[in-house]
Amino acid sequence: MLPALIPAIPFLGACILMLCWKRISRSAVTVIGCGSVGLSAVVALIVAATVASAGKQPLVQHVWQWMQVPGFAAGIDFRMDALSVVFTLVITVVGFLIHVYATGYMHDDEDYGRFFACMNLFVGAMLVLVMADNLLLLYLGWEGVGLCSYLLIGFWYKDPANNYAARKAFLVTRVGDTAMAIALFLLFQYMGTLNIQRLLQEAPVLWQKGDPAITLIALLLLGGAVGKSAQLPLQTWLPDAMAGPTPVSALIHAATMVTAGVYLIARMHVVFELSPAAQTTTAVIGAITLLMAGVSALVQTDIKRVLAYSTISQIGYMFLALGCGAWSAAIFHFVTHAFFKALLFMAAGAVIVALHHEQDMFKMGGLKKSLPAVCWVFLIGCASLTAIPFITAGFYSKDQIIWLSFAAAGGHKVYWLAAVLGALLTGMYTFRMFFLVFYGEAKTTVHRIPGPVMMVPLYILSVLTTVAGFIELPHTLGHVTLFSNWLLPVLPAVQMAQDSVVMEWLSQLASAAVALGGICLAYVWVLKRPQGMVDFLSMPGQVWLQGFWKRGWDMDALNDALIVRPFVYLSQINRKDLIDKIYTGTAQLMEMCHNLMARTQSGILRWYIMGVVLGAVAILSVLIWRLHGVV
Amino acid sequence: MILLLLILIPLAGALLSWIAASRNVLWSRCIALASLLVNLVIVGQIWATHAATGGQWIYQYKADWVPHFGISLNLAMDGLSLLMLVLTFFLGALSVLISWKEINQRVGFFHFNLLFVLTGITGVFLTMDLFLFYFFWEMMLIPMYFLIGIWGHERREYAANKFFIFTQAGGLLMLLAILALYFIHGANTGVYTYDYFSLLHTPMQQDTARWLMLGFLIAFLVKLPAVPFHTWLPDAHTEAPTAGSVILAGLLLKTGAYGILRLVLPLFPEAAAHYAPWIMFLGVLGIIYGGMLAYAQNDLKRLIAYTSVSHMGFVLVGAFSFNTLAYEGVVMQMIAHGISTGALFIIAGALYERIHTRNIQDMGGLWSKVPVMGSATMIFVMASLGLPGLGNFVAEFLILLGSWQADRWITVFATIGLVVATAYSLRIMQKVFFGPSHQQYALPDLNKRELVIIVALVAAILLLGLHPQPVLNTSQKTDYVVR
User: Fold this and answer.
1) Whether A578 contacts chain B with CB within 8 A
2) What is the mean pLDDT of chain B?
3) What does the mean pLDDT of chain A come to?
4) Is B437 helix (H, G, I), strand (E, B) or coil?
5) By CB neighbour count within 10 A (0-12 exposed, 13-18 middle, 19+ buried), where does B331 fall?
């Protein structure tokens, strides 16, 4: 099987849907929309099996020459290696489930076909991103998913708020993309190629560890990753991106696109290994982001915004792992996160649809009785997100990151502390949400019980969310390393600074304790003593602080004041183009002179004579003065 | 001989369609369209057969004109000329098609002017005699003046005059420089000629070369246009009829870029290199300044017009980077910008025909009414902000990759220009097609004729983005100045 088929099938689906969705029936749209992604998943599985059976030998396919000029060439070249296989499988399988779910979620939408056209386009672009063999093709996928994200956030285009959110997402990520583009220029300047494998092979030959040039390149790449993955300081677009339909949030803004930055850094890991400064920056950004976003998630009222901040926070964990050199741990967390966050988003979507597009958690409550199935799958997702020990995939992936943030060669006590604190926050915000939505008194009535087409994907994801953890178990618990072994040809094993089993136990105990502690706190906060919480929150300063966190630490206001408003102001005052004033001004001056001179031609003879006399006098006086001067 | 035909066919078409209009307007349109299609087929045929093989010059034709002054009918075609001609006849034929219903007054004279401009442009792209170059350069000007002044919108006379004065002033400087070059070459070698190939290596003082280069350069900077000579462009583009805007943005601006590549750099390589940092600065200034101006506009055509200023800044940055990557990018940019901006003007014209306004504040929510038009606009808006997979990305990426080797900071700011491009491009979509509809317009979607035009343009921009290799290969046949 050819790797190129994997992205080609969704692209084909997108093309067909775009051209003729108005002319074909709704069920045909469903078949094409879901079928293309499903077929792509099947091909991906076959390709993965081929790679696995060939001793993880990568499959490379040259499709056509994209551009070739003297000194530079880039092809439409795909490469399936262990890392690409992981991403491809997650994208196609989770993508397929979300597509199926969306047929139920979007069932009554008049633009049903347009929705699936964009979704298919997204899947194709995302697959190009993770399968590209050169950075330029990767950049094509990178921008392509940005476009689809833009189209789908603003899918309900009649509401201007959605368009602003879409535009913001595109613009903010474009800032990161600019940094990434400059990184490409630098890489090309030094190495004369953008082929990823050649870059990875030649970089260690060309540069010593810590060389300023490679640090600059790594930091610029990090800029691109930070934009796409909604990390500090470019994270502000993701909470607003929740304006899109919920399947979009699940697919693009939780499971796949936002982790593109993680993929980029893992893919270019050699560059980051050569630059300790850039790696530290990555870890610090991850640690700060995971804490800030966790705190923000704690005070949101909109269920989707909780999940959005949670996504930012969890990707913060991945960045932290990448920064510590724990490459496969980051990818492992990507996989489990894709499962449980897609599950959570879709379950939240089921609630939202059931309540007639109500998203405010404080208007929900008591849904355990009316939506028992949704409650159960949501609970499974929450458990995994909180990393409840032993039974959830989230535990194995997150625990690994927490341990390695301390024990890896690039780790540090402070990172560990941040990660554990983040786990506490995770437990709190997750179960605050869970209790608010499903427990307490019922405040609304359920209008629509989600049908099997929405529920079956949720069941499948619930299973995946639970069993996916068992492919990688820590030393202390069985020591299974299927996942990191699989990635070994692409991503090197983590360098350990600490290898004490006792310490690892302690770390695991701590993280398990804070996760459970977080749940208890949430329980007390929401269900046991809500009045106490109300009193606490109305304390002076608390109200402001809460608002501050809810607004995402006022990063929006900061961006507005520093970049957006100056730009808009400058362009508004110059709307008429000052430079044009020079030309029109000259023209006006000429016209003024002309008018002035024209006045002298008045037809009054006395004035003319006067002019002649005055002129003669002036000329004579000049002459006399000159002659006098000579004499 | 075939090169002469390429010039004569549209010229004959111009006269014939003028005459035919007095009998039947439809004939006039058909003759105009047919003559351009014939030329398109000819250049397409040349591209298909000759581009891959042979030396630098695909065709050459030389005949004496005024031998006494060393003026000859000297035509030649290399890769660059060929590509420009394909673009010329492609956009030319589309211009006739878009005017099919829009132009109903003095149809014959309109087509006469349209084809006459195209004849001038063809001449500029083919001639290798500086006197003849100037001749064709001026020949483009007058019919364009009429196109704006007669069939334009409300402020058409102001715009036409401004266009004329700016271009004419620049042209005069070029004429002076051409004459000076002619005499310097004659005095030094004894051979008085306007022949491009003979003048290429004229020995002269460094200072003289720099002054002469500025003479040529300013003419081309006005045409391109570069900041601060750009202010004729928004008025001319906005007021011109749709076909006029397409030809202005798609082709006339390209003659400026072509002039830089064909004349300024080869004739005065040392002087060009000397001023290169300043000119690149002008280019990057244009990218950002033009982008900011575009962002602030409410008139849709004016907005698109300013995006041209921004995009042509890339051409300037690339042309003065002196390396092959950037040159390839510049040629791609000329073609891709011609198509994407031409398409945006066509859409703006189609909207104006339907709702009789160009003010984007009065639009909004049009997607539900004209989804096909909206999708097409989305594609070209994305092209304009440099989305990979569409032609403009290949162009801008190659330019930036090349200019990075020449000047890093210029490139950094030019890259930041892509963020500005995102801002103004998305604003178009948001204001025109998304959001609530303020007015209850009843407007039909694209009709068959418009659909043919748009589909051709979409196919072109996609092909350029995904398979630019034929263009790149052809453009490599041109001998650029590399250092």
Assistant:
1) no
2) 91
3) 88
4) coil
5) buried
In a domain, B45, yes or no: no
Least confident interval from A29-43, A468-482, B324-338, B369-383: A468-482
- Three-class DSSP category at B388: coil
What value of ipTM does the predicted structure carry?
0.92
**Whole-angstrom Cα distance, residue A240 to residue A235?**
10
Which residues in chain A are closer than 8 Å to B325, comparing Cβ atoms? Answer: 69-72
Chain A, nearest residue to B423 by Cα: A171
pLDDT score recorded for residue A631: 53
Chain B residues with beta carbon closer than 8 angstroms to that of A577: 231, 234, 293
Domain total in chain B = 1
- B404 in reach of chain A (CB within 8 A): yes
Low-confidence winner among A193-202, A535-544, B194-203 (lowest mean pLDDT):
A535-544
Q: Render pLDDT for A543-575 as a digit per residue (tens, 0 to 9).
A: 778 788 888 788 888 888 888 888 888 888 888
CA distance A493 to B337: 48
Band (pLDDT 50/70/90 cuts) for residue A630 is low
A contacts of B374 (beta carbons < 8 Å)? none
φ, ψ dihedrals at A132, nearest 5°: -65, 140
Name A302's bridge partners.
Answer: A360
Interface of A with B in 162-201 (CB under 8 A): 163-164, 167, 170-171, 174-175, 177-178, 181-182, 184-186, 188-189
Q: How far apart are CA A227 and CA A107, in angstroms?
A: 33
Q: Is B393 contained in some domain?
A: yes
Strands (E) located in B391-448: none
At A192, the amino acid letter reads G
Q: What is the DSSP letter of A496?
A: B
Contact partners, residue B431, CB within 8 Å, separation at least 6: B360, B361, B363, B364
Handedness of CA A169, A170, A175, A181 (dihedral sign): positive
pLDDT digits (tens, 9 = 90+) for B177-187: 999 999 999 99
What is the chain B residue with the closest CA to A164? B430
**Structural domain contains residue B192:** no
Residue B268 identity: F
CB contact under 8 Å between B422 and A185, yes or no, is no
Q: What is the pLDDT of residue A479?
A: 78
B164-184 in b/e form (b: 16+ CB < 10 A) is bebbeebbebbbebbbebbeb
More confident position, A495 or B173: B173
The whole-angstrom distance between A202's CA and the closest CA on chain B is 20
Q: Does A399 touch chain B (CB under 8 A)?
A: no
Longest dimension (CA), chain B: 73
From A579, which residue of chain B is nearest by alpha-carbon distance? B228
Position B52 pLDDT exceeds 70: no
Question: CB neighbours (10 Å) of residue A379?
Answer: 16
Which domain, by its residues, includes B311?
270-475
B430 touches chain A (CB under 8 A): yes
What global pTM score does this model have?
0.92
Q: What is the 3-state secondary structure (H, E, C) of A454-487?
A: HHHHHHHHHHHHHHHHHHECCCCCCCCEHHHHHH
- pLDDT of B204 reads 86
| Structural domain contains residue B428 | yes
How close is the nearest chain B Cα to the Cα of A610, in Å? 37
Cα separation, A179 vs A175, whole angstroms: 7
Partners of residue A185 in chain B, C-beta under 8 Å: 400-401, 404, 411
**Amino acid at site A604:** I
- Taking CB atoms and an 8 Å cutoff, what residues of chain A touch B435? 157-160, 163
- Compare CB distances from B422 to A76, A151, A171 and report the shortest one's residue: A171
- Asked if pLDDT for residue A536 goes beyond 80, the answer is no
Q: Which residue do the tokens 């024990």 mark?
A: A407
Domain definitions of chain A by residue range: 275-550, 576-630
Q: Is A139 on the interface with B (CB under 8 A)?
A: yes
